[in-house]
Amino acid sequence: MSQFPDIREYVALPRVVSLRLSPDGTRLVSVVQSLNPDRSSYGTALWEIPLDPSAEAYRLTRSAKGEAGAEFTAEGELLFVSRRPDETVKDNDEDVPALWLLPERGEPRRIAARPGGIGGVRAAGGVVIVAANVLPGDAATEEERRKARKDAGISAILHEQYPIRYWDHDLGPAQTRLLAGAIHGLDDAADLTPEPGRALDRASFAVTPDGSTVITTWLAYLSDGEMRADLVAIDVATGSRRTLAASEGHEFGGPVAVSPDGRYVACTRERLGDQELSTALDLWVVDLETGEGRALGGELFPSAVAWAPSSDAIYIVADHLGRRPVYRISLDGDVTRVTADDGAYQELCPAPDGTLYALRSAVDSAPRPVRISLDGSVTDLPSPAPSLDLPGTLTEVGAVAEDGTEIRGWLVVPSEASAENPAPFLLWIHGGPLGSWNDWSWRWNPWLMAKNGYAVLLPDPALSTGYGQSMIDRGWGDWGPVTHADLMAITDECLKRPEIDDQRIAAMGGSFGGYMANWVAGHTDRFKAIVTHASLWNLDQFAGTTDASMYWQREFGAPGSARYARLSPHHSLDKISTPMLVIHGDKDYRVPIGEGLRLWWDLQRSGVESKFLYFPDENHWVLKPGNAIAWYETVLAFLAQHVLGTPWETPESLT
Fold first, then answer.
1. What are the entry keywords (predicted)?
2. What pTM did the predictor assign?
3. Helix (H, G, I), strand (E, B) or coil at 436
4. Which terminus has fewer CB within 10 Å in the chain: N or C?
């Protein structure tokens, strides 16, 4: 165990972000993120994770540009994507990601490159499928046309359909295409999708075990700015495409997984909500022989999908009561919970012998590779990341809402807190709105707050996942009022505890949690301070400027409708008196910077004590290590001023 670090040491901790198992079940590889030597950015590398718990993990790759997208071939060679330079190629463009191959013994070598770079990769049956960023038109002239645009200083993009942005990047003019070829012939790969338009944006795809068919999500663009995702099969030999799953009321999404026997494909199916009907997510399985599809798993919201080696069952993970267990779902529909602990699992890797490998994390544990035995027991495997000695305790808490619903959450209490020395209290509201506090968070880590003496409540109010569809229904189309009541109910319960100071309290939230922080500010003055990050302020404005307006219009209606007026926090500006710290990134396209700017101006013109922490180069999250330090230091300084009563002191990172 390592002592829990301070903020600057904390951002330097290595982070295990993925896990891949070789087809024969003998090798595990992780992508690990760590601080670069310049300490101002993060890099990635591939690490070998020994299957022997007594061994040590070791690093496989080293480059200044980093490596990602690890994928094993059937022969056990490792594919990955990197911008690393290739010494065998003259005038190599290091800014464009290429596909590399790392044999079990030997040095990595570049095996494919495209003018616009390579993204995802899948391999099966001697065939490699890559997702490439390709300009429309003649492929032979693409590199020349890219250079001409760059040399002419042209960044303009002409759009003829919605959307034009996604999270933090612009869409177009290039398109995502799927290319297929032999592992040593990818420079001449066949284009399986020569004119996809924007259909493969955000595509999740897989390959059948014999390499004959690619299964992928396919965006269908509809009238009035609407869109949905279908599931299609593309024949590798001919490029012909057929639809496997399409529905006006649903969209099909990743992860996409094909059974080892090649007969079935599993994915997620989302019910498209409207003003009356909430969204829902289930596991969808299609029989590739008959074309028939069916839902399995009931109300579980799957976020990882992997087939059992026998092809008669599927492993998923799904939120459940503040955890994210592993479930086994048979093709007969029987659901069995595999893991019984408080873990939040991801990156499922079933082995041929029935063993399951995964990343396990929790509110009190950073992601680590583990082995899950047939009896459900969990064994830690060697990890590149240290185990941390936490500066407090984690307790499950609950309350009863106004309508009788049980509201639960996690309470982090610093080690030194007691009835004689009660800790100041922070209410943290999760984003989503469909989400749950059930996992480790690098961006909103309550243990850093505990190290600084604060107790932190992590509640799951209305709209939280892991409590059945009824919990989502309770807050659907009624975000502010119902969620606020739930938050206050569980806050009241926690403030009864003797080790909590019921006077020194603050509230914080990001994204939807930021929306709720703004709502709380306009509906109670009980908190000493409120921190609102990437928050929604004017719903009507937000719904027309976000990157996915069609999604929010389904729930709230056409712009200008009554629901916007009733639920927009900005209508309660005149009731806000609590000091507020507004935080926003300029590259945030999900909640555009206009929300933060408008909120900041409204607070300033209304005389509300406030500060604005602005990140010109960050998106919906704060990802750069230096900016993360500034985020935590500024939040702590603001809380110290208004909750602890100490004079404001500008953080060292901002001076």
1. Hydrolase, Signal
2. 0.96
3. coil
4. C
